[in-house]
Write a structure and sequence with these properties.
- The protein is of the alpha+beta class.
- It has one domain: Aminopeptidase (3-Layer(aba) Sandwich).
- Helices cover 31% and strands 35% of the residues.
- The protein has a four-stranded antiparallel beta sheet with strand order 1-2-3-6, sandwiched between helices. A three-stranded antiparallel beta sheet has the order 7-9-8. A two-stranded antiparallel sheet has the order 4-5.
- It is globular and about 40 Å long.
- The model has no long low-confidence stretch (mean pLDDT 94).
């Protein structure tokens, strides 16, 4: 069993993009969604070097291997992404842990780091599009359900949460 104290959280660098992309797809596949969903999510789940440079991205490392990450983005304007309304503000856009490391406290450790970084950046709250399978995690870390919204998958709704810092 891994001791969560052995996990380091560090700022991601451009060269981490492939590892972060592999983790995002692996974590999403853990829920056994239909294969065609991944075609729709391809751009959302692909983390580029440019994305890392333009946003706040931190990685979880265990024995020199990246095993999870989170990202915060700022939307300076409200907009629609397809049928999905995206509010202005700061968003926890991604938090993914490789499925081999689920359930041992890495997500909570990433949230602790996220809160610290948010305080430093004077971010007071984060909005979150929540995968329905992850609702329990967000409830446990103190995020609050706000409403359901259309997702990028036709005829599918997802919850929107808020995490106050």
């Amino acid at each position: 069993m891994i001791n969560v104290q052995e996990i380091r959280i560090e700022k991601a660098v451009e060269q981490d993009s492939e590892a972060l992309t592999r983790i995002s797809f692996a974590a999403k596949r853990h829920w056994n969604y239909p294969i065609h969903f991944y075609d729709i999510w391809k751009d959302e789940l692909t983390i580029t070097g440019e994305y890392i440079l333009q946003n706040t991205v931190y990685k979880a490392i265990y024995k020199n291997q990246i095993i999870g990450f989170y990202s915060i983005v700022e939307n300076k304007y409200e907009f629609y992404s397809g049928d999905t309304f995206v509010q202005k503000g700061f968003w926890l856009e991604h938090i993914f842990i490789h499925p081999d490391y689920h359930g041992i406290g890495i997500g909570r450790k990433l949230i602790e780091n996220l809160k610290q970084i948010s305080v430093e950046k004077r971010i007071h709250n984060l909005l979150i599009f929540v995968d329905p399978f992850a609702r329990g995690f967000y409830d446990k870390v103190g995020a609050y359900y706000l409403y359901d919204t259309k997702s990028s998958i036709p005829e599918r709704f997802i919850p929107v949460y808020e995490l106050k810092i």
